[in-house]
Each structure stands twice: as structure tokens, then as C-alpha cells.
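User: These chains co-purify. Model them together.
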Amino acid sequence: MTKVNRRVALKVVGTTLGAGAFAQAMAPLREWARDLSLDEFLQRHYRELDKEEMERVLRRLEEETAAEYGRDVHIRDVRPMEDVQFGYALNLSVCIGCRRCAEACHEENNHDRATNNSYIRVLEMDQGSFDLEQGNATYDHEVPAPGKYYLPVQCQQCDNPPCVDVCPVQATWKESDGIVVVDYNWCIGCRYCEAACPYHARRFNWHKPELAPEDINPDQAYLSNRIRPAGVVEKCTFCLHRTREGRLPACLEACPTGARVFGNLLDPDSEIRWVLENKRVFVLKEELGTRPRFFYFFDE
Amino acid sequence: MQELGAAPGLPSGRVIIDGSRLGGVPSGQLDALGRPRRVACVSCHAQRSATSLPDAAGELREFHAGLTVRHGELHCSSCHDDERTHELRLASGEVLPGSEALQLCAQCHGPQTRDYRRGSHGGMRGYWDLSRGERRRNHCVDCHDPHEPAYRGGHPVHPPRDRFLSEPTHAPEAPHD
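Assistant: Joint model of the two components:
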């Protein structure tokens, strides 16, 4: 029988403690495994996925949606179009604050039904005032109300986006057509971007979104309206699953007054270019240097 | 159907403005979807030769009684042809079918017509990229009743819901100051 000397005893105690500490350190992994598959855990960043890996990820997400929400959906990876830079403009002279844009966003982008979440917040403002913090987003009376005007605010798709700068894991970035996107599977939910956005345009999923199967919009894209997991940040993508295929965004189609103008900034004959060249156009919080792609204008 | 493409440099041929609703008046009844059921002008005007148009809607006794007109200083004959009362008439005297009303409105509403042609007035659906698909545009009368054109508002939809108010288990957040 070997003599248990001091050296061996220390080795045994050390190994036991080490193994225990390792198990403890890995405990969150076991916790995660309950709502996170190994594939998802090992998934690489959106911009590092090759075509084959992307395909596998999309099919897995479709299967998960079918299992968790009871609806067969089609999730695509829609890439930017060549020679297209998106721009959006909104006519404050005709917006009546009906919030149909916010409703259309809610339905198009598979938002949580319980919270009425939407990427658009319509602020009721006093005429003559431009203090966004004084805007009322919860008005509940006939519109347009006398002495008020209505300012719908959504992601401004800034060319100098503070939300992108602050992300510690590069889960959000600006695409070549100007849209700021989030890889929902890479986001760690720290909400720095939400705090950095001067337009309050980002939303955080406090809970797993609740949607009835018949309420789900099955036309989905990885970077836009697929159902987001709990604990990640999400934002307006100018409906890239529609607009990158030439269609108008859902909020524009829903607008009953035609206050919204969308198009390609590089096309000199586009409606958006005509507005920028001929109307009194401004951006929100210009002094911050964020250089928004979302413009507001008045009729003369 | 009417196509818009008069302004130089604008894409044409894929932008559709449906003016077919202009060929009639509301019958006072609703269809299965709750929309006003319309009667084509010719249903009556083909049978009955019109007497000359009155100056104001209040003088209408037998037909179109109760019609409200709140549209500037216009008389019936400012827009309707005196003899072919189911058709429209431009200030130049040119007679227009009802479906071409856009041209009639454009006589007075220049800035709105310019904005409309340039895509910054009036709702639309479809494609921003006309090389990929068509775009359907609202007609003037889809939003503005020609006899009472001021746009009517209404009650807003989709109020934001405070997640703390709907979940009493959570303590309300302190206001951010």
C-alpha cells in the first residue's frame, strides 16, 4: 500500500476542488441547454456563416418556430440589392396620428401580442414645440386634435449610428444599403444600444413573444421579422424582407394619408429624391451628428 | 383604370390608379363588407333627361336630396356637365368621364397634384422598385369626398400597452428623470 504523503493528499484535494470549481463554472451552460440547442450555442456570427451553414441555421429556426409556435414559416436570408441606398421621408403636414403604421409594423414584424409592441412610436406634440421628451405616445382621443401635430418615430437608420458603436459583441451593424441590423442570435441583451439610441428606437424582449399561430406572418427573414428570442434587442429594419425585394415597407402601405415616402436615394428620378430636393426637409436631433436616413418634411 | 406617367422622368405603365369607383353615387345601403353600395350614374341618367343643374345642393328635392356640399364656393356645374349630368366638365368646357376626375381636381389643386405625381401625396401599395412589380395608388376620391373634401380623422388604433401595468406581479418602474 502506498503511503499517502502530504504531496499526494494535496494533489487529490486540488484535483477535487478544481473539478468542483469547473463544474460550478459550467453550470450556466447546463441551465442554458434547456432553452438553447447546442447548434444554436455553437452558431457563428451572421457575417461569418457560409451559404451552407446559413441554410442549416434557417431550417433549424423554421423547425423551432414550428415546434414552439405551431406555424410553418419560411425564413430567408435576404441580402442588400446592388446600387440601392434606402431613404425614408415623412410628411408632418398630413400625418394625422392614427397609428395605423404602428399597427402594421406590429403585424408585419411578428411582435409580441400582449404588449402591442411596435418599432414605431407616434408622438403627439404641441404645435410650435420640438421637444421629443414632451411628446405623448399614449394619447387616446379623436385625431388630429386641435393644436397638436403627430411625429412618428422609428429607427432613423443613421449613417453614424451610436447604437452600433456601443455594442460590445458586434451583434449590430450597418449593411451596405444603409439598414442597421441585429443578429438576434449573437446579441447578448446588454441593452447598451437601447441606451445609446437618441431616438428610443430599439426594443428589448423582456419575455418570449406570445403569438397565436394564425397571427404569425410566415414571410420572414433572418435579420428582420423572424420571431425574436427573449432577452435580445430588436429594431426597425425598413422591412428589409420586403424592401430588398422591391416592395414598399408595411408602415407605408398602411398609411391612409400618404404621409410616407420611401425609395432609393441613388435613383435621381425616385420619389424620395424629389422630396429631398424640393421640400423643406430636416432630421431629428441633427446636432448629435448621427446622420439619419429618415427625413421629415412639411408642405409649404 | 388610369395610368400616371405624364411627368417627365417618372416611370410609367406600372403605376395603377383605380378610378372605377367614380362612376356612381352611394345608394344608402351597405354591402356584405360594410362598404357603401354604389349605384352607377347611368342607372338613372340614361333614362331620364336631366333638367338644368341647380346652383346648390339644397335645391335638390327628388334625387340626391340631403347631399351636403362643403367645397369652397363651388356650384354643381363647376364640376358636373350641365347636359350630360353623369359626366364631368373641365373649366375649359371639355367633358370628362367620371373615372378621370383626377384631371378635374388638378385644375384647382396644383401643389397637391404636383406632390401626387411625384409620389409624396396619397397612399399607395405595392413596389417601390417598378422594375420588379406594380404599384397601386389611391385616387383623390379614395380619401376625399369631392362634395366634402376635408379629410376626416378618427379614433387612433393600436395604443401602446405598458408591460408593467398589464403585469401586476412586477413593481412599477420609477420614472426616469
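The radius of gyration of chain A is 24 Å.
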